Amino acid sequence: QVQLVESGGGLVQAGGSLRLSCAVSGSIRINVMGWYRQAPGKQRDLVATVISGGNTNYADSVKGRFTISRDISKNTVYLQMNSLKPEDTAVYYCYIKRWVPSMDYWGLGTQVTVSS
Questions:
Q1: Which DSSP string corresponds to the chain?
Q2: Could you tell me how far CA 30 lies from the centroid of its own chain?
Q3: How many other C-beta atoms can be found within 10 angstroms of the C-beta atom of residue 101?
Q4: d(CA 19, CA 8)
Q5: What is the pLDDT of residues 32-50, one digit of tens each?
Q6: Is 54 exposed, middle or buried (0-12, 13-18, 19+ CB in 10 A)?
Q7: Percent of the chain with pLDDT over 90
Q8: CA torsion 85→91→94→95, rounded to 10°?
Q9: CB atoms < 10 A from the CB of 64, how many?
Q10: Torsion region of 53: left, alpha or beta (phi above 0 gives left; psi -120 to 50 gives alpha)
Q11: Phi, psi dihedral angles at 24 (to 5 degrees)
Q12: Nearest CA among 42, 22, 38 for reference residue 30
């Protein structure tokens, strides 16, 4: 059974940094790994993804500040978050996707709070 275990969330002041980790257990082919976030009263939005082959995509709001990376051998995806802003406060969800057969997997979420 596939499980996603997130870690690294917490409280940080504006301008600080955090690194989120998501370790995926289970033997499946993973085509996309990434992070979404959902702030109170707002929709869940894509933050960053890395696709098989290494291509990355970022939300405009985090470009230049966040970096997504992966360790294939450990089946782990990371999100390095620098220059954090209060607007980054949200629950961050690890996300993986396989294309064939089509399936999405979500972590339980980890809280990131950025104080002003």
A1: --EEEEE--EEEETT--EEEEEEEES----SEEEEEEE-TTS-EEEEEEEETTS-EEE-GGGTTTEEEEEEGGGTEEEEEE-S--GGG-EEEEEEEEETTTTEEEE---EEEEEE-
A2: 15
A3: 7
A4: 6
A5: 999 999 999 999 999 999 9
A6: exposed
A7: 86
A8: -100
A9: 9
A10: left
A11: -105, 125
A12: 22
Q: Measuring CA to CA, how many Å separate 82 from each of 6, 32, 33, 43, 105? A: 18, 23, 20, 23, 26
Confidence at residue 27, expressed as pLDDT on a 0 to 100 scale:
73
Q: How far apart are CA 55 and CA 48, in angstroms?
A: 11
Q: Which two tokens stand for residue 55?
A: 């291509």
The reported pLDDT for the residue numbered 17 is 98
Residue type, 109: G
What are the φ/ψ torsions at residue 72 (nearest 5 degrees)? -65, -40
